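pls read this stuff:
=====
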Amino acid sequence: MITGAELDPDACYRASIGRESRWDGRSYLGVVTTGVYCRPSCPARKPLPRICRVYPSAAAAVAAGFRACRRCCPETLPGSGRWDVRGDLAAWAVRMIRDGVVDEVDEVDEVLSADPLLAPLVSARPGLRVPGAIDGFETAAVAVLGHQVSVLAAATVTARLVADYGTPAPSGLSLFPTAQTLAEAGAQRLRETTRVPGARAEALNALAEATAAGLALGADADRDASRAALLALPGVGAWTSEYIALRALGDPDAFPGTDLILRRALGVRAGATAEQRAR
């Protein structure tokens, strides 16, 4: 790792892994693969040490070409309002709900019901929301494996992958394989295991390698950076990246406009038309 003159790189990295808030303002961690720098207490998933750079100040990180993380706002001053913006917003939301000022569920349904296409759907199933993801990498990997195939075919391929690379769990179940495990397996072995086309196995392996190297696929990720990183991977297009953004990143504005079922629901043929309809 590249370090400032008086910084211990190992100590700074350990502080970031432990999300030590007392190190905030003393060191900053830049991630080469995303071009983003954070403060140690940032809730985002920490990447491997070999792709990290440590800096003594936010200015030094910016001078090295990194941009500030939108989640932890490392460019702000310690003690300022934006320094703990997550806590401030969460506290504000809790107070508003506690005092009965807003019901987040009712407010969202009211907004969605203003759209003539969505209104009957909201009325039929009020409070329904898009499902999230327990594990962002698993959701992304299944999306890559299941792209342009039937649900049954996707389930079959995923079952083969888990059977060979998953970790045994109680009750005869298996945990989905980690990104590191699939990255080490390589595209050729993944193709032999899942029996998918070579291009899809390469896409899965590329996703696993990127995630193992620090690609963030959680609700606390920098959505723009993660989207860009996903689209840079072989075999990952707009539909896959938007689906992952919707489920794993929790982006309320994600829109897989090229999706066949979505286009049918909107009554349009082209993805571009669906995008215009959604605005």
In short: The two ends are 44 Å apart (CA to CA). DSSP finds 14 helices and six strands in the chain.
